[in-house]
Amino acid sequence: MIQTFEQVIGGQKMQFCASIAEGGGPARVIISRADSAESLVIVEAEGIIGAIKAEVEAPDTLVADAVRKAQQEALIERALETGTVQTTSL
């Protein structure tokens, strides 16, 4: 499941993509620039509520919630400014 979206950063419209990470452990959504494989933000479904959301929500809803959280917390901008992957949880 990959979702692409646009966001204005520094007055410039940029393309990003978000996808559910494969592998064991808690569900994670990784956000990166659409033109790069470089990870910018990792949103993890941690804790009991996050784990339940990851199990019962449709994948596209989980990805949309993760994108919304990253945008609300300005994590994409911070990752681009600092060059450091930002992490948060649902």
Structure description:
The chain has 90 residues and is an alpha+beta fold. It has one domain (2-89). It is built from 3 helices and 5 strands; from the N terminus they run ββββαααβ. The protein has a 5-stranded mixed sheet with strand order 1-2-3-4-5. The longest helix is centred in the C-terminal third of the chain and has 14 residues, at 59-72. It is globular. The model has no long low-confidence stretch (mean pLDDT 90).
How widely separated are the two ends?
A: 18 Å
Q: Count up the domains.
A: 1
| Backbone shape | globular
Mean pLDDT: 90
**How many H/I helical runs?**
3
Strands across the major sheet, in which order? 1-2-3-4-5
Q: Give start-end ranges of low-pLDDT stretches.
A: none
Topology readout:
Elements: E1 2-9, E2 12-20, E3 28-33, E4 39-44, H1 47-56, H2 59-72, H3 75-82, E5 86-89
Parallel strand pairs: 4-5
Antiparallel strand pairs: 1-2, 2-3, 3-4
Quick overview:
The chain is an alpha+beta fold and 90 residues long. It contains 3 helices and 5 strands; from the N terminus they run E-E-E-E-H-H-H-E.
What tags apply to this protein structure?
single chain, 90 residues, alpha+beta, 5-stranded mixed β-sheet, 3 helices
